[in-house]
Amino acid sequence: MHTLEDVDKNKLPKHVAVIMDGNGRWAKQRGKLRVFGHQNGVEAVRKTVENCAKLQIGFLTLYAFSTENWNRPKIEVETLMKLLVASLRKELDTLNKNNIQLNAIGNINSLPPKAQKELAEVISKTSKNTGMTLTLALSYGSREEIKTAVREISLKVKNNIISPENIDEAVINTHLYTHFLPDVDLLIRTSGEHRISNFLLWQIAYAELYFIDVFWPDFSEHHLVEAILNYQNRERRFGKTSEQLN
Ligand code: IPE
Ligand code: IPE
Ligand code: MG
Fold first, then answer.
1. Is 95 helix (H, G, I), strand (E, B) or coil?
2. DSSP class of residue 188?
3. Residue 140 Cβ contacting ligand 2 at under 6 Å
4. Reduced to 3 states, what is the DSSP secondary structure of residue 123?
5. Whose Cα sits closest to atom 3 in ligand 1?
6. I need a labelling partner for 107 at 20 to 30 A (CA). Which of 61, 166, 173, 233 fits?
7. From the CB of 197, is ligand 2 less than 6 Å away?
8. Where are the beta strands (DSSP E) in 15-162?
9. CB of residue 40 inside a 6 A radius of ligand 1
10. Structural domains of the chain ordered from first start
């Protein structure tokens, strides 16, 4: 089994994004309620954050709650929000100890007031950290993000702040929730599902995709290392030929 030491520090993905999936099925396998899976998922989040920080990954973005997840049973949504508040409270010291800056993307205003308050507090209390940027995608949907950006840009056009000819990719980037993040280099999805589920559609244009069968609560150091080693063995051509790269 590979460990963090096996990773080539000179070929690290700058931005790793993770679709943390499979909590419900993990619990079901054990004859427990879905909520039990979410509780155990928190530990996998803690370990992954810590391991990415150790590796000196610059940016880690975690898909924690999608715009579509609001359609789940009320009790599950409430539990997820409570877990969020409790984890933020509990992890503040660890984030600071590891020099990690917290951020959030998504329709944050739609979160319960308690979650918004806790989030704002941890974001502010970690804002001076200079190590890894950890971004939580909460009430996040890529289509909603793009819609919001189009609205904002349209308003600027209407008010003569920007002209249509000047709308380029950089302008679009600055209007996305992720304006402070580089493009995703490596996208990992656990649980065996091979889909994107409305996550960072614009930002993964040239990301390397990595799908793994384990359920999120079981995702540990060696799975993360396997994903990064796999990434490091790929040739990223960005439209060019292999010969052009060598
Ligand atoms: C991921 O696990 C956590 C969230 C989406 C909040 P799921 O809850 O989707 O677990 P499965 O996919 O049903 O097993
Ligand atoms: C994607 O997982 C969202 C998160 C991991 C937060 P889902 O479990 O909601 O995705 P689908 O519905 O199976 O595509
Ligand atoms: Mg799921």
1. helix
2. E
3. no
4. helix
5. 21
6. 166
7. yes
8. 15-19, 59-66, 101-105, 133-140
9. no
10. 15-140+184-234 (3.40.1180.10), 142-176 (no CATH)
Distance CA 207, CA 241 (A): 17
Q: Is 23 a pocket residue for ligand 1 (Cβ < 6 Å)?
A: yes
Q: Which residues are catalytic?
A: 21, 69
The position carrying tokens 């051509």 is: 237
CA angle 2, 4, 8 (to 5 degrees): 95
Token duo for residue 93: 């010291």
Counting beta carbons within 10 angstroms of the beta carbon of residue 195, is it exposed (0 to 12), middle (13 to 18) or buried (19 or more)?
A: exposed
Measured in whole angstroms, how far is the alpha carbon of residue 28 from the centre of its chain?
25
- Find residue 66's DSSP bridge partners: 140
Contact 218, 234 (CB under 8 A): no
Question: 103: CA distance to ligand 3 center in Å?
Answer: 23
155 CA distance to ligand 2 middle (Å): 32
- Gap from CA of 69 to ligand 3 centroid (Å): 9
Q: What is the pLDDT along the chain (246 residues), one digit of tens a residue?
A: 999 999 999 999 999 999 999 999 999 999 999 999 999 999 999 999 999 999 999 999 999 999 999 999 999 999 999 999 999 999 999 999 999 999 999 999 999 999 999 999 999 999 999 999 999 999 999 999 999 999 999 999 999 999 999 999 999 999 999 999 999 999 999 999 999 999 999 999 999 999 999 999 999 999 999 999 999 999 999 999 999 998
The model's pTM: 0.98
* Top mutation candidate among 19, 23, 71 for ligand 1, by most atoms within 8 Å of CB: 23
Query: Which ligand 1 atom lies nearest to the CA of residue 27?
Result: 14
